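Job type: complex structure
Entries:
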Amino acid sequence: MEQLIRGGGPAIPKGLGASPRGEATPNELGLTPPAWPIFLLVAATLALALLSILIGAGSVGPPQALAFLLGRPEAVENSYVHMVITTLRLPRTLAALVVGGALGTAGVLMQSVTRNPLAETGLLGVNAGAALGVVLGLTLAAHTGRSASSLAWAFGGALVASLLVLAVAATGRVGASPLRLVLAGSALGATFRGLTSYLLVTNADVYEEYRFWMLGTVAAVPLERVLEMLPAVAAGLLLALLMVKPLSALFLGDDVARALGHRPGLVRAVVSLAVTLLTAAAVAMAGPISFLGLIAPHLARALAGPRLGQQIGLSLVAGAGILLAADILSRVIIRPHEAPVSVLLAYIGAPLLILIARSKRMLILHGPGGQNR
Amino acid sequence: MNPAHQPSHVLGSAVTPTLAQPDRPAGAPPGTRVLRAGSLSVLVPLRAVLVAVAAGLALAAAVVWSAAVGSFALSPWEAARAMVGQGTPTAVLLIQKIRLPRIVAGMLAGAALGLAGCLTQTISRNRLATPNTLGVNEGAALAILAVVLATGNSLGPWWVGPLGGLAVALALLLISGGPGTRSYRFLVVGIALAALIDAHINLVLAQEHITTATAVFAWTVGSLAGRGYLVALPVAVALAFLLPLVLLVGRPLSVLQLGEEVAASLGVPVRRVQVAVMLLAVTLAGLAVGIGGPIAFIAMAAPILASRLSEPTRVPLILSGILGALLVVVADTLGRVVAGPVEVPVGVVASILGGPFLLWVLFRETSARGF
């Protein structure tokens, strides 16, 4: 047990849970965080959101966009500027905020529940599973003529994928060795992507619409779809908030958590449900975006320290901010073309993955003592 | 101990580690026969030979099947006759000019991938370590893509793929500190590099016109459409040179299976063998990518199947090559016929079939050796 707590790497906050007096105060559970990191992150994210409306790959420059936002008549009456801002940049900015927040939260939850600093929905193939679900639903809808709820299909795909990956994690001599889980996830993800491209290649009309979505992008998300997914994201976040306290108790070990009145199996199931819900909604909007669930929680942990509640809050904001920044960059980096936003995240995320894999902490869980269930 | 100094063991892969003593008394060990020609003698492992012959027959059957099916279907007998130039002129033209070149190209790519996978899996003692997960395939694909986009040809010169793969392998070795005891770190760094290169390929393609992007699509998933003798020939020549080298490292490699310390104490120059094996594996994978792009899972599945079929002490190099060729031919043929008029790229078929296979491997890995 000692080894596990030491070996969990950055995913395991130290000294969490009940206070020495036996009563958990809100502060120790991270419900009232120190002000400055949150303030800084929120301010940066808001600034990025503004920037995201001002900057684009096209011809509407920041001055025109700013004039529109300030309600100057010459800009508001310009139908082109009006169209660009309201149907392109505004939905896109909102989508980046919601998707980034959902994936950032899903990442920190997944890492906490698996005690694996590399457990990220993209790396574990859950995003690819959700994407496969969406395309499967579309293909069936095209054949039967009925419309399909992309959220439900994404949820089904994400659920199957996370169950498969967690089953792999639960078997094997080395238990849920962090690196091994990533290997299994990346291979499963490749299969899901293979099936998705098979479905896309054989359905020409679906292919045209989803070619870019497949790569992961917030570029063409309609406002209706963002609004449609908002309840699911809200539900996922609510579940996450409810689970802060029990999940923190779980870090002390299943026995301690039981003694504190929590049911470990139930807690894990509910957290996994929240992860699946958040991932499904994000993928249904923006396609499979990898690495965000790795980058955001690591930034959040660096700022917030060990408290889980704070980590979740900061991860949410950091995920939104990072996705916004990457999306803004993706519009200007190869102008006049647009790069898929997932590409930019991979440029940051892959080196981070290498750094984590190289850190000494990763090796501790790798031995035969890695059984943690 | 350099195997080249031991003429009686030049066919290194045919010798198991338990037979490492060259001065063993006369008489063949169990399960082998001795072939003698004057002063030269070779140990022939019976089971390995039988399995290899069976796999070769299966490959021949797959080739005939692949040549027979398609939009213009022939009977297997007609297809086999057309391969040797008999039958209707249409059938001969179709088989000899269109289907057979593609099959040969696929076989060579598969054989190279199977060999490369067997080498990387053995050296890192991990079934998941393949040119695919190590980023070598992606590196080769990116190098080829860069050359293709720069020159406007749809194919790159044969040496570009190995060069790209080599660059990634070098980066991988430098960053991760090599395979061996920390093999999972080695693998995850490989996955990260693969993701990085994939992202870069997508960035490059995003700037291209849609027609160009479609034309070079094969280099991102693996496809044999339109491949033939032109790309296959240099790879065939290179394979003819590399195969003896691969067999030569087979013997120290089978000792390395026992662990680095054991191998070192038995006189195997561990570092040198590891470097030689990595070089060979990367070159082979790069050559394979030059034919059909980064076809996934072949390099993982072929050696696993091969070692299931052969004895546990043996490194089944030849069999991995044959099975790799078989898998690619079968996957490519499935991709041609399964969706009617639309052709599914061989890389996509391989990915789809590879997932369940991988799950099976992961679930039974508790009992298996080498994880």
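Summary: The two ends of chain A are 10 Å apart (CA to CA). Chain A touches chain B through 51 residues (CB under 8 Å).
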